[in-house]
Amino acid sequence: MRTIPDQLLATTLRAIGDGVISCDLENRVVMMNAVAEQLTGWSEVEAAGHTLREVFVIVNETTREIVEDPVDKVRRLGTIVGMANHTLLIRRDGTEIAIDDSAAPVCTDQGEMRGVVLVFRDVTERRRAEWNLDLLARSGKVLLEHRKFSLLLDSIAELTTDHFADFCVLDMVLPSGEIERSVGVHKDPALRALIEELSRFPPVPGQKAHPVIQVLSDGNPQLFPSIDQALLKAVAKNEVQRHHYDRLRIRSAIYVPIVADTKIFGVMTFCRNISPVPFDEEDLSTAVELGHRIGAALDQKNAIESLRKSEARFRQLVEKGNIGIVIGDLAGGHSYINPALMEILGYDKVEALNCDEVTPPQYRRLDLIALEQLKTSGSCVAYEKSYKAKDGTLIPFLVGAAVISDASGEVEEVASFLADLRPQKQAEAALLQSEKLAAVGRLASSISHEINNPLASVTNLLYLIRSDESMSPQSRDYLETADRELIRVSQVAAQTLRFHRQSTRPMTIAPETLMDEVLALYGGRLVNFNINVQREYAPDVQLTCYEGDVRQVLNNLIGNAVDVMRNGGWLRVRTRPSTLWSTGRAGVRITVADTGGGMTPKVAKHIFEAFFTTKGNNGTGLGLWISSRIVHKHQGALKVRTSTANEHRGSVFTLWLPIDLAETSHEPWHKSEGTTVEAPES
Ligand SMILES: Nc1ncnc2c1ncn2[C@@H]1O[C@H](COP(=O)(O)OP(=O)(O)OP(=O)(O)O)[C@@H](O)[C@H]1O
Ligand SMILES: [Mg+2]
Q: If you write DSSP's letter for every residue of 384-452 in order, what string do you get?
């Protein structure tokens, strides 16, 4: 092999782009090229005679332990050695650069080692790129972990202070629009407290000079390779903050949005105050990417959260609501029936419910029409249909349905909504019934009115007959009786007229007057059934109410009491002033007590429901239902105590009414013609 002259070799080594240092067997530096001079910070002249250890100090990037001297290693192994990965060269001025190197023995032709040559190069740029990639990879992993989001942000901030930044802060926008500093981390534990102190002064929306506010408003990331101290002065809100900035001596900074699509959740700020290396464009793009990744994760988390919330809301609606819901297919099968429908139909197990069986045959045709509409338009026009409950009763429903399709429009399921029409049907029937009652009332008052005129004539005629001197004493007796009965007829006619006259404005009246008027109507029956009436009226009580309405309530209470005492008994009626302790409102308590059979708890539970009667065809079952509505309208209360036990058998109905009906309820309960008609009293 041709020997290369030393001179040529030295020239070659000086010319190459890598740093080259050669040393003798005593480890003393013999030669350094210009690149090596620049990388180590030592000149060849200065280094001459120094040991390699002094000139070329290398440590492990992570552990910071001194790496084995490459010359020692070459001597030990006698071959070319590569250097451990991730090595940092500590330069003469104390700054650090990442290097990659190798060392090789320099031997004579005879193979005798004369020294070692070290070749190394600055890989800071490459390492930084690797670190940035590593940061993205590691933060990606953290984001995938399903942890609490605030902890997740903490972890990512910690990661960024590994190599990327010296400190990192996160300012998040709260739903209120305020900005909250959620995380602030410094790589140097001694400076963490200072960063936390600074968290007390988060940027505020009006601070236009603050880069965080600018990024929040336009979404553009900002790179400050070097920091103008004037900027920090502008950003600081007070002396304390300014002082903290002075202590930190920030050299370089990056501000990036945490963003998903166009929604900006917050801003990440990265600063270097220890590392002298300024942030560059490559760092900026790493930070921007990180901001996007966190934004996407936050967006996804919000989407999952709102999906969870809306799922919970719909579940509540479906499971707790009182509308029946069935999810099924177009073939008529069902995969879900909600508890409300199960309860209405009286089933406790879904398996027991067969859709075909619960639909009476006469509704099949309507179902088929609805099915056709579902297939063609995706929903059907709501229709009325009855279902057969478990106990065989038919329950009316208003049924509507719509198909549920997947993203491609393929029909997946059918959702049907069933509204129980029973209350509505009952109300309709009740209205009809009360219209009928009102019509009867109108008829009764017009009859009374018509009777009054002939009555007056007959009374006059009887008066004239009485003046006939020739009448026998017996005839005179008959005449007296006829006169008394006539007075009774005219009283009943007058009461009936008054009874059905509904005033449009509340009147002030003594409650006992109302009570006596009603009792007068039952006079005959009370005597016939052998019912003793006991009246206990407190004096000087006045009530402002719609007298016709209150009379209707009393009439029903007394009517019911009379109905249960056909074999005699005691009817006790009482009025007395009474203040409602819960509101302090003054009122009147009217009690109607009977010694009839009383009610079992099973009956008592239903008496205020429309159409509940135990009287078969002799009762409509509307009396107490209408009464309770009237009482409600009067802001009063109607209560019952009842017993079937022998010693105190009977029922006590207590009606409480305020003495001054509030302005708001100055409207009769039902404004049907029959009850508001004013019949002239004659
Ligand atoms: N004083 C009472 N004693 C025992 N049962 C009563 C009494 N008052 C009401 N009830 C029971 O309550 C039911 C409902 O009463 P409500 O006045 O609403 O209707 P009704 O009297 O049956 O019919 P209507 O009043 O239309 O003639 C009655 O059928 C009866 O079973
Ligand atoms: Mg009744």
A: EEEEE-TTS-EEEEEEEEEEEE-TTS-EEEEEEEEEE-HHHHHHHHHHHHHHHHHHHHHHHHHHHHHHH
603 CA → ligand 1 middle, Å: 10
> Do residues 519 and 640 share a domain?
yes
Between 450 and 130, the more confident residue is 130
Task: Give residue 591's domain range.
Answer: 506-665
More confident residue, 670 or 641: 641
| Domain boundary pick from 60, 90, 122 | 122
Question: How remote is the C-alpha of 453 from its chain's centroid?
Answer: 69
- The side-by-side arrangement of strands in the sheet containing 383-388 is 334-337, 324-328, 411-420, 394-405, 383-388
pLDDT of residue 672: 29
Return the residue whose CA atom lies nearest to atom 25 of ligand 1: 623
276 and 351 housed in the same domain: no
Ligand 1 atom closest to the CA of 561, numbered from 1: 1
Give, using CA atoms, the residue closest to atom 1 of ligand 1: 561
Q: Which residues pair with 399 in a beta bridge?
A: 383, 418
Pocket test for ligand 1, best of 611, 612, 613, 654 (most atoms within 8 A of CB): 613
Instruction: Give the residue carrying structure tokens 């009936």.
Output: 496
Mutate to test the pocket of ligand 1, among 433, 560, 595, 638 (most ligand atoms within 8 A of CB): 560
| DSSP assigned state of 83 | P
pLDDT bin (cut points 50, 70, 90) of residue 444 is confident
Which of 230-244, 267-281, 610-624, 657-671 is modeled with the greatest confidence? 267-281
Do 292 and 325 lie in a common domain? no
User: What percent of the chain clears pLDDT 90, i.e. is strictly above it?
Assistant: 31
- On whether the CB atoms of residues 455 and 486 are closer than 8 A, the answer is yes
Q: Do residues 333 and 227 share a domain? A: no
Does 596 sit in the ligand 1 pocket, CB within 6 Å?
yes
Q: What is the pLDDT of residue 665?
A: 43
Ligand 1: which residue has its CA nearest to atom 4?
598
| 22, 71, 90, 534 from 36: Cα distances, Å | 10, 16, 13, 124
Q: Are residues 196 and 233 in the same domain?
A: yes
Flag whether pLDDT at 1 surpasses 50. no
Residues 6+ apart with CB under 8 A from 188: 166, 274
Q: For ligand 1, say whether the CB of 593 is within 6 Å of any of its atoms.
A: no
Residues, CB-to-ion distance under 5 Å, ligand 2: 556, 560, 623
CA of 560 to the centre of ligand 1 (A): 5
User: Candidates 609, 615, 639: which one to mutate for ligand 1, based on the most atoms within 8 Å of Cβ?
Assistant: 615
What is the domain-level CATH number for residue 358? 3.30.450.20
Which of the two residues, 338 and 505, has the higher pLDDT score?
338
**Closest Cα to atom 28, ligand 1: which residue?**
613
CA gap 253, 217 in Å, rounded:
19
For residues 400 and 530, state if they share a domain.
no
Q: What is the CATH number of the domain that holds 288?
A: 3.30.450.40
Q: Do strands 531-537 and 569-580 pair parallel, antiparallel, or not at all (unpaired)?
A: parallel
**Ligand 1 geometric centre to CA of 493 (Å):** 26
Q: What's the mean pLDDT when you consider all of the chain?
A: 85
Query: What pLDDT, on the 0 to 100 scale, is given for residue 19?
Result: 92
